[in-house]
Amino acid sequence: SGKVEMVAIDDPFIGLNCMVCMFQYDSTHGESNGTVKAENGKLVINGKPVTIFQERDPANIKQGAAGAEYVMESTGVFTTMEKAGAHLKGEAKRVIISTPSADAPMFVMSVNHEKYDNSLKIVSKRILHHQLLSPLWPRSSMTGRGAAQNIIRASTGAAKAVGKVIPELNGKLTGMAFRVPTPHLSIMDLTCRLEKPAKDDDIKKVMKQASEGPLKGILGYAEDQVVSCDFNSNSHSSTFDAGAGVALNNNFVKLISWYDNEYGYSNRVVDLMTYMASKE
């Protein structure tokens, strides 16, 4: 993107040559358009070397020596401020936790990111649409069933998570999730009871205006007859499907939105890092 530069990766479980192969070829996103190779113990992407660490303890990662200022903590293990704070021992300036944290402040781009201030060294980063209905998978007998043969229901921590970033919705939202046997992409189905009546066309108009205005680049808008794979590698956090919604009446509506959480999320991480850096 040109906004940030990746200078280091820590992965204690796979070797450098495996990283090269996995970056070059992806079963979902396809083959990389750039160049990638291993050279002098580093991962070289489009001519730029990336330092590789293989440490299990984040305190042992020499972030500063690699030139890393911001760390994206994506293991799902070091999710509290105390545990994620180990990265700071390696001279990183700030840490962004990629999963809900019990105690780190949570920020969602376009929702509450402007509340961030540079006194915070550790934050949690989530995407709002993902908080709404994407699952935080529980361990149960159902999750051990064949994923390719079944649609599997799962619980979600959506309501509590949304309440953290939008206090006005705290206690007003609930949800559930399904694991569906597709290789990628997700869909959000939001059913709303409206306090003020709104026609379906008016809702579409507001969504389109938002996608072209204050939420440009974050919210997409689609009018074509689309299916899930049409949003593969889509950088929006969510794309409103104008033709998929259902209105029982002007006070009870169902809204549908698609998203590539991997690709969209990665772009929002870059956005948050850029915003945080602007406050240094």
UniProtKB/TrEMBL annotation:
One of its GO terms (molecular function) is transferase activity. InterPro entries: GlycerAld/Erythrose_P_DH, GlycerAld_3-P_DH_cat, GlycerAld_3-P_DH_NAD(P)-bd, NAD(P)-bd_dom_sf. Keywords: Apoptosis, Cytoplasm, Cytoskeleton, Glycolysis, NAD, Nucleus, Oxidoreductase, S-nitrosylation, Transferase, Translation regulation. Its EC number is 1.2.1.12. It comes from the Eukaryota. It catalyses: D-glyceraldehyde 3-phosphate + phosphate + NAD(+) = (2R)-3-phospho-glyceroyl phosphate + NADH + H(+); S-nitroso-L-cysteinyl-[GAPDH] + L-cysteinyl-[protein] = L-cysteinyl-[GAPDH] + S-nitroso-L-cysteinyl-[protein]. GO terms for cellular component: cytoskeleton; cytosol; nucleus. It is found in: Cytoplasm, Cytoskeleton; Cytoplasm, Cytosol; Nucleus. Residues 1-124 form the Glyceraldehyde 3-phosphate dehydrogenase NAD(P) binding domain. GO terms for biological process: apoptotic process; gluconeogenesis; glycolytic process; regulation of translation. Pathway: Carbohydrate degradation; glycolysis; pyruvate from D-glyceraldehyde 3-phosphate: step 1/5. CDD domains: GAPDH_I_C (cd18126), GAPDH_I_N (cd05214). Pfam families: Gp_dh_C, Gp_dh_N. PANTHER family: GLYCERALDEHYDE 3-PHOSPHATE DEHYDROGENASE (PTHR10836), GLYCERALDEHYDE-3-PHOSPHATE DEHYDROGENASE (PTHR10836:SF111). Homotetramer. Interacts with TPPP; the interaction is direct. Interacts (when S-nitrosylated) with SIAH1; leading to nuclear translocation. Interacts with RILPL1/GOSPEL, leading to prevent the interaction between GAPDH and SIAH1 and prevent nuclear translocation. Interacts with CHP1; the interaction increases the binding of CHP1 with microtubules. Associates with microtubules. Interacts with EIF1AD, USP25, PRKCI and WARS1. Interacts with phosphorylated RPL13A; inhibited by oxidatively-modified low-densitity lipoprotein (LDL(ox)). Component of the GAIT complex. Belongs to the glyceraldehyde-3-phosphate dehydrogenase family. This is glyceraldehyde-3-phosphate dehydrogenase (phosphorylating). It comes from Rattus norvegicus. The lineage of its organism: Eukaryota, Metazoa, Chordata, Craniata, Vertebrata.
